[in-house]
Design brief:
Layout lengths: L3 E13 L4 H5 L6 E13 L3 E5 L6 H9 L6 E6 L2 E3 L5 H6 E4 L13 H11 L8 H11 L16 H14 L4 E5 L7 H18 L2 E5 L3 H7 L2 E6 L2 E7 H6 L4 H8 L49 E3 L1 E6 L5
Helix pairs in contact: 4-6, 5-6
Length: 322
């Protein structure tokens, strides 16, 4: 069995809303928004976990909490069997790096690529003044960019090239784990394929572990060893990619997979999840999917199901109808 390099147990991230002056006078508690609410997730060394779900389900918040950009509100995180808190050491921060959805907004527009990379390498003491130039060149070669790119600003690149720079910046810290947050969703289809292939090559060559966050189930199926399906802050199904795609168990997973267009002649598009995501206030009682579930029953209004094993030890789902 592969070593678990990163694991979350009952992990949560709640955002506290702004409170009005009248609310403060009346002593009302500010609204707490549970963006991530009780997530269990384990990442075996060298694997790619695909995290899927519709917009607003908490995928990006979970990724940012795992990487340390957001402090967790509860639960625990372990990195290489060592529990880590919100106040991480530089070594712990280097170990988990993120590739962002919008590469342009994540890059400093006033800095050349060389300056960005040198700043990181020198601050973290991963290169000295004599070797930093060589390391910058190596990073450009790793992501398939010419050495001349080091002298340019982010505005001088295409979207795909900027994403390669974002990947190079993440790799500069020599991470063990990469979290790709919708890393290709803002790119043209042809460019998406090249970035996905690059990430797979880097994962193989550098021995990385990756969490690939996306709403595009087809791409997730292509790159992932395991899939976790997220709905309203919770993982509702998780297992080997082949298990989840060939034998989906949770009603939400079935609807997601059924809504993917098929290129087979005569095939029909399945029904997608109906309606908007429930409001925050509707999240607290019963199953979170009950208002949109085609097989909901009365017990779903009072029971919040936990993940249970489905046949294979590599497949879990959270539904009382299983």
């Amino acid at each position: 069995m592969s070593e678990i390099v990163l694991s979350a147990t009952n992990l949560s991230k709640h955002f506290i809303g702004k409170q009005s002056v009248i609310g403060k006078i009346r002593g009302k508690e500010p609204l707490s928004v549970p963006a991530v609410d009780g997530v269990d997730l384990s990442m075996p060394a060298g694997s790619t976990i695909g995290l899927v779900g519709e917009s607003g389900c908490g995928k990006s918040t979970l990724g940012r909490t795992l990487v340390g950009l957001y402090p967790s509100s509860g639960g625990s995180l372990s990195l290489f069997d060592r529990q880590i808190g919100n106040d991480r050491s530089l070594e712990e921060r280097r170990a988990v790096q993120m590739i962002f959805q919008d590469p342009y907004s994540s890059l400093n527009p006033r800095m050349k690529v060389r300056d960005m990379l040198e700043e990181i390498l020198l601050f973290h003491k991963l290169a000295d003044k004599e070797s930093v130039q060589k390391r910058c060149v190596e990073l450009m070669e790793l992501v398939g960019l010419p050495v001349t790119a080091l002298q340019a600003y982010p505005r001088q690149f295409s979207g795909g090239q900027r994403q390669r720079i974002g990947i190079a910046r993440a790799l500069a810290l020599e991470p063990k784990i990469l979290i790709a947050d919708e890393a290709v969703s803002a790119l043209d289809v042809s460019v998406q394929a090249s970035i996905v292939n690059l990430l797979q090559d880097l994962k193989r060559d550098l021995g990385l572990t990756m969490l690939f966050i996306s709403h595009n189930i087809a791409i997730v199926r292509q790159v992932s060893d395991r899939i976790a399906v997220m709905y309203l802050g919770r993982i509702v199904e998780e297992g080997l990619t082949s298990e989840v795609f060939n034998n989906p168990q949770h009603p939400y997973t079935k609807l997601l997979l059924g809504s993917v267009p098929k290129m087979t002649p005569g095939s029909k598009l399945g029904a997608a999840p109906q309606g908007e995501l429930p409001t925050i206030q509707a999240r607290y009682e019963g199953c979170r999917f009950q208002s949109r579930c085609p097989i909901a029953k009365s017990a779903c209004a009072t029971t919040d199901p936990a993940l249970i094993q489905i046949g294979s030890k590599d497949h879990q789902a959270a539904c009382i109808n299983l």
